[in-house]
Amino acid sequence: MRVDLLMTGILVITIAVAVAGFTLIARRLLDLRFGTIRTLLAAALVLGIAGPLMRSFIGMVDPDDPGITPLWFLILAAVCSLLAGMVFLVIAEALVPPGSLPGPVELVRGLRGRMVRSRRYLQITRILVRHGLGPYLRGRAPDLGAPSSRVRLARSLREALDDAGVTFVKLGQILSTRGDLLPVEFVEELRLLQDRVASAPWAEIEPVLVAELGGPVAETFADFEREPLAAASIAQVYRARLKTGEEVVVKVQRPGIAAVVEQDLDIVARLARTLERRTRWGRAFGVGDLSRGFAEALREELDFRIETANMAAVAAASAGEPVHVPVPYPELSGRRVLVMERLEGAALGSAVPEGRDRRELARTLLDTLLRQIMLHGVFHADPHPGNIMLLADGRLALLDFGSVGRLDGALRAALQRLLGAMDRGGPLGVSDALLEVVSRPDEIDENELERELGRFMARHVVTGVAPDMQMFGRLFRIVSAHGLSVPPEVAAVFRALATVEGTLARLAPGFDIMAEARAFSARHLQEESTPIRLRQAVEQEALSLLPMLRRLPRRIERIAGAAEHGRFSLNVRLFADERDRRHITGLLHQVLITVLAATTGIMAVLLLGTDNGLQLTPGVSLHQLIGYNLLVISAILALRVLVTVFRQDR
């Protein structure tokens, strides 16, 4: 029994040493690391054929011939076995690249995720069927020619999105701002998702409050109403009063919403990748980037600490403006709870009381948003009617800062030039300014882009033509058709302007947003043209140029002196970048290894075809033995080149 255990241990140790030796040799010769599973399979192949090869090669040696040693044949058999394992690795690298198949851990996680997604798919399917959308899933859509049919479908879609959860509610809210894509019946119905979402019961909300506050609700608040003031897709808002007497509102995140959002975002991301891979319009619109931007924005909205910081940033950007931003209480707020100042008034989504100057309110709102975008670079990115309140004193207030856009100075300057060019009506200026805003490809037909923008301006940016939602959709289509990529920050600006256009249309029908934007531009230009502003701008530019101006005379003197004495020269360094040197070195290595493999292979073939030389066995001469070894070396070098070709840089 002990002998059997000892033999088993020796066998296991031998196999382990052989596998480790093969792994080290294969990595060294091929200069790459391989996965554990394919390395073990290759090592098993080597161990499986090594014994038969050695017996076969030793059988070629005459045991009675004292001049022939079997050592070289044993080495040749071992090298051939090693070569077989390396061939297996290269073939596996070509047929099954690394990452194309999941590992055991990833496979288990993938199965679990697939089961979770399948349950979510079934849940969403049941919701759609329950709201009468089953025929659309089967591809048998009824006739929607009549307005009443579109109204019924829009209501069913809104109710289904509401039941499906926060991700689909947010998707519906975004679609409600896209009048360029959807009929008016759908836009009007989906707008109800902005302020008419079913509320969660208090029994589900209270544990969230207790966990975030670190104790019972009564320890922090003197009074807390359990009926929500409003229910949104992510959170619900409650009235409360602090122990110190301040009237506040408390925004509480819906329980368990983060996990559901992650599942839904995974589904949205997979669908976007499929559309981008299989459809031309998906690639043109960059639905992959759009889904990633949507996911990033939604994840930010789930962290109320970010919203607290956003409120402070927008409040600073709106200082001195007639639009109010509620004051948050950071010490009482957390990731899922936000406590802020209570404002008395009504949401702009409801009817504006009589006696209010609707056009003046619309002008104030647009002026504030444009100042946030163009002057301060921090702006409310979702100004739909549910996020705007009309206070009792007649002022407007902004709510819900989960989505806030930010622009740096360069983008703000480029946008100002774009709006100025559109105001002047020159397609060439608009084209040049647009190419400063977006990310342009290497090749672009600027003449065709200029003509497209000219037709766009003739249709939408003329006196007497009121802009609509189709204006922004048309501009996005022009940008996408020419292969231009809109940065996420600029896309947030267009989305905010498109959203506020719909808000202004409901607040003051017939409000000319382009005329007001031109008036804002004129006022801003006038403000920037005052003597004080001009002097400040000149002083800032002079201060930035002063260090260069101080060094300029000395540099000019050195250049002039060198030219006078004939020492003026130019020093050009090729391949100064380390990445260029590595690339060229890698190519030279590949070429050198390829030449060596070809040369060694040719020499092996020549030696194998030679009949002269010392006969080691009746069928193998010394020249042929050397040829076999050279052939193995040639194969190893060729495999190293091939595996580098197959292995993509990941």
Automatic annotation (TrEMBL):
Pfam families: ABC1. The keyword Secreted does not apply. Coiled coil: none annotated. CDD domains: ABC1_ADCK3-like. Keywords: Membrane, Transmembrane, Transmembrane helix, Ubiquinone. The chain crosses the membrane at residues 6-25, 37-58, 70-92, 587-608, 628-646. It comes from the Bacteria. Residues 193-420 form the ABC1 atypical kinase-like domain. Belongs to the protein kinase superfamily. ADCK protein kinase family. This is Ubiquinone biosynthesis protein. It comes from Streptosporangium album.
